[in-house]
Amino acid sequence: MGAYILRRLLLVIPTLLGVMIINFALVQFVPGGPIEQIIAQLEGEGDVFEGVTGGGSETFESNTESSYIGARGLPEEFLKELEREFGFDKPPVERFLNMMWNYIRFDFGDSYFRSISVRDLVIEKMPVSITLGLWSTLIAYLVSIPLGIRKAVKDGSRFDSITSSVIIVAYAIPGFLFAILLIVVLAGGSYWQIFPLRGLTSTNWDSLPLWGKITDYLWHIALPVLASLPAAFATLTLLTKNSFLDEIRKHYVVTARAKGLSENKVLYGHVFRNAMLIVIAGFPGLFLGVLFGSSLLIELIFSLDGLGRLGFEAAVARDYPVVFGTLFFFGLIGLLVGILSDLMYVFVDPRIDFEGRGS
């Protein structure tokens, strides 16, 4: 197993390097970089895209001597100083190599517009995204696994048909639409104001006792977590059901029943371990998917300041250290989670031998 893990770890390097090269190359062709953002703010335009998309012939004609659209009346020395400050006075290849050398040492630099290091910025926003991802994944497992087992045992029954219909409808509803529905009904939109609309804690959270802090925290995360559940809930329930159905039809189950074992003994003593292999091993991947996949819209709707919102705002503002730093960090996490998923397979079922397959 050690040789397999070493091979997977070595594959992380070229994979991550390829991801970074592709994204760095794409960024070179995207209009409106950080310097254009600063110029737009200095000129009072507020948005760099007004100049990029053609803010009038006067704007274009007045910039024939500058490579930056919208740099009206700004000294050339000032623009060159901005280039040196952001590192754009160097060729793209040199900039990329310097960036990767820093990233190897986990030095992600500082944000262009926030006066804070990218590492500290990610650490600051991480609790919100971890809250959404962890609670959503745990609740999805606690509900989906028993429901999936029940559906497998009652396959084809009325219970199975009704729950399948509910699951399909839930899966078809977009997460952001479900979030808006929750706000309208439960957060003071048009009906009841039971839950708060924004933030993870109340303004007086620091002054609350321990039990009050826990209650306040759970009260705030209830709607965001609930809005994140439908997709993961539906996928995991059907995965559990299909896994159990596949195992229930195997010969060893028939043999166990023929020996006179009770249904619960057969189901949870024999079938459960084999059927839950793929479900349990998929926990890291599901958590990562919920953590980074659906967090943006949920964070925006519920005014949560997490990683999804951070990435979106950095991309809009062309804050390249944040964009590439988080891309490298999360790409590395994603690749390591893939290895962790394989280790989970071996942990759940030691009979699996990835080294034997690799040879």
Put the structure in a nutshell.
The chain is mainly α and 359 residues long. Helices cover 72% and strands 0% of the residues.
Describe the structure.
The protein is mainly α and 359 residues long. It is built from 18 helices and no strands.
Mean pLDDT: 77
- The DSSP helix count reads 18
Largest sheet: none
Q: pLDDT below 50 for ≥5 consecutive residues: which ranges?
A: 47-66
Instruction: Report the portion of residues in β strands.
Output: under 5%
**How many strands appear in the DSSP assignment?**
0
Which structural class is indicated by helix and strand composition? mainly alpha
Helix content: over 70%
Order of helices and strands: HHHHHHHHHHHHHHHHHH
What's the overall geometry?
globular
Rg result? 26 Å
For the termini, the CA-CA separation is 12 Å
Task: List its salient traits.
globular; 18 helices; 72% helix; mainly alpha
